[in-house]
Amino acid sequence: MDKGVKKLRVGIVGCGRISVMHLESIRSFSDVELICCCDVKKERADAVSEKYGCKAYYDYEEMFKAEKLDAVHILLPHYLHAKVSICAFLHGINVLSEKPMDVDYESAALAVRKAKENGVLYGVVFQCRFNNSARLVKSAVESGKLGKVLSASSVLTWARPDSYYLESDWKGTWDKEGGGVIIDQAIHSIDLVRWIIDSDVESVSVSMANRGHSIVKVEDSAEGLITFKNGARYGFYCMNNFATDEPIEIKLVCENGKAVMSYDDAYIYYNDGKKEEAHQDENPHIDGGKDYWGFQHVREIRQFYDAILCKEPLKISGEEALKTHALIMELYDKGGMKK
Ligand SMILES: NC(=O)c1ccc[n+]([C@@H]2O[C@H](COP(=O)([O-])OP(=O)(O)OC[C@H]3O[C@@H](n4cnc5c(N)ncnc54)[C@H](O)[C@@H]3O)[C@@H](O)[C@H]2O)c1
Predict the structure, then answer these.
(1) 173 CA to middle of ligand 1, Å?
(2) pLDDT in tens, 17-72
(3) Which of 34, 204, 209, 226 is a good FRET partner for 198, with 20 to 30 A between their CA atoms?
(4) Ligand 1 within 6 A of CB of 41
(5) Which CATH number fits domain 128-280+317-335: 1.10.645.10, 3.30.360.10, 3.40.50.720, 3.60.110.10?
(6) How close is the Cα of 18 to the center of ligand 1, in Å?
């Protein structure tokens, strides 16, 4: 960055588990400065303040009022995402919110509207779209090389033991998390497939249950069929009662070939015998980061800042993320467990 050019002033709200991915990404950019952090749990905000050399706040509105921020990262329990994002928009601050947009459709749609009214950017984290594997398959479909997607499938088998829910004061609750394995874990694979197929949803058929977590009421397993207006049929299965966090498996059967994605590897087998593949770059080790989340937070966060700096349009805007959010909400509407 040129000498004398002002750095972007940024803050984070929520200093929990995911914050390390955002903090380390911010730290790696020379044109962005972490000014402040906020958490209602004082010790968490203080720890980030000390480690990253920024000011600690315990009330996000006070932070938005006091600091002239260019952007804030929202890393909160799901039910607070739209509310706190809207508060930031009203202070003229660009927002990058962790997934999901919220626990219902209306709050998410309102946030999209409020960002627009206040002339600020609203980005939503779906970092898996920045994986090399996802990029390869998306471009092979978008360019027409693979032809139309006929069918897709995704399988997620992860481990969220009782201790995961016991340690949290919001996970595993309908009002604060908004669901279980779909809204928290499978949302990434469902988003990837929906984004690659890129067509409106025609119909949704789903069944969900809590089969192995007696301490919470939300679903820990689900399977369903989503059909799209362009004719593509997508079957998914997810459960978070597995022994380990296995790589997500995604398959796409297309007119001109098949794509198989696992973790950050993708293989495309064209009907004419040609083959293409993509793999993960060297794993950037981040203490506290989890490789099965995907390590592309840094790419999405960089893209968000490039959009603020008017270098390119925002890739995963609120409007774009709302398409996946609407689908996730429809799965819960049809699933019959959410009251
Ligand atoms: N993109 C991914 O792959 C990925 C992975 C993990 C988590 N996440 C998302 O990140 C978000 C946070 O998840 P987490 O696991 O870090 O949760 P967490 O519970 O560890 O952290 C949330 C933090 O928010 C704080 N908080 C709650 N209410 C607050 C308020 N009013 N003001 C300020 N702080 C408040 C809590 O004290 C806590 O420290 C969720 O949306 C989650 O789905 C995304």
Answers:
(1) 14
(2) 999 999 999 999 999 999 999 999 999 999 999 999 999 999 999 999 999 999 99
(3) 209
(4) yes
(5) 3.30.360.10
(6) 6
